[in-house]
Amino acid sequence: MKIGSYTLDNSLIVAPMAGVTDRPFRTLCKHFGAGHAVSEMMTVDATLYANKKSLYRANFDGELAPISAQIAGSEPETMAEAARYQVANGAQIVDINMGCPVRKVCRKLAGSALLKDEDLVARILDAVVSAVDVPVTLKTRLGYADGEENILRVAARAEQAGIAALAIHGRTREQMYTGQARYELIREVKRNANIPIIANGDIDSPQKAKLVLDATGADAVMIGRAAQGRPWIFREMSHYLQTGELLPPPEVAEVREVLLGHLDDLYQFYGEYSGCRIARKHIAWYTNGLHDSNAFRQAMYAQDSTAGQARVVDAYFKVLLESDERLSYMEENLC
User: Fold this and answer.
1) Which DSSP symbol is given to 326?
2) Cβ-proximal residues to 261 (8 Å cutoff; 6+ apart), any chain
3) Of 71, 75, 78, 110, most Cβ neighbours within 10 A?
4) C-alpha distances in angstroms, 288 versus 228, 230, 326?
């Protein structure tokens, strides 16, 4: 698959997730075989009037190419300005967010709320594509409301505007993240499109990745929540798509090293105070469903220093290693 002049290594893409897909997480997913990763969303206000938090989101230092920065907003002119800012900051691809369903984004008529106004969608697409000389991609949903899905019109207009690739989450904004993703309309978009189409939504296993690729004919799949605490899912998916065989669960010793390395990157990236606190959710995702993980997490949450946090993580995985060489999940604890 190609995005403009960039050829991706494979058809597996890390979805942009607010508060998750920072540089350490994107780097780790690429290490495990993701062919591409999109940064977490930055609103135009955060992009143009950067505060400390948003500066972390716009940090691409040392990241593997191609670097993709996602922007969100509702005014064509400020979206164009934000795109230029991100390119000057090192972005090689600009991604437009028209898929975020959360209320604080939609109430500003940004994210998936834009799908209610197709004329505004068109003006934003035209403005951003014209503003920069790098590929522009779009992430969106099937439509704003159930029964009013307009993705076919939006996709056609995106292609007309010069969008280089289109990622589609198989839900409407009304669905949020409830129910099941629907892939039929994504398949129809792909049949009519001359640009790469990326399918997104509920892709949580190697088998599901293949099923969605086959069902939609999409050029790639985008994986979000399933990669939280499980960055090796990209290795598993790549192997399955190439061979039809499932890899065994990763070794506990490897996961211990991966998690401790991820923590070290977070601590260096965010510093002592923020690094310790941001790491907590990642540790919880890594350990969800593992033996005695609830008790471990309570001990972990009590740590208020990076050194103490890393120490209890190391000790927990050493205990796990005494009972099994490979990760073993307790199904009843999985969320």
Assistant:
1) B
2) 28
3) 71
4) 10, 10, 15
Identity at 241, one-letter amino acid code? L
Q: Long-range pairs for 279-285 at CB < 8 Å and ≥24 separation?
A: 279/306, 279/309, 280/309, 281/19, 282/25, 282/228, 282/229, 283/259, 283/309, 283/313, 284/229, 285/228, 285/229, 285/230
Nearest CA to 199 out of 207, 209, 191, 246 is that of 209
**pTM of the shown model:** 0.93
- Residues whose CB falls within 8 Å of the CB of residue 307, separated by 6 or more in sequence, listed in order: none
Instruction: Give me the residues paired with residue 138 across strands.
Output: 96, 166
| CA pair distance 6, 46, nearest whole angstrom | 27
| Per-residue pLDDT tens digits for 295-309 | 999 999 999 999 999
Q: Which of 290, 316, 320 is nearest to 301 (CA)?
A: 316
List the one residue out of 8, 69, 67, 2 whose CA is nearest residue 41: 69
Tens of pLDDT, residue by residue over 64-96, are 889 999 999 999 999 999 999 999 999 999 999
> Reading across the β-sheet that carries 36-37, which strands appear in turn?
36-37, 12-14, 220-223, 197-200, 165-169, 136-141, 93-98, 68-72, 42-43
Catalytic (active-site) positions:
100
| 143 close to 173: Cβ distance less than 8 angstroms | yes
| Non-local CB neighbours of 201 within 8 Å, separated by 6+ positions | 169, 170, 171, 181, 183
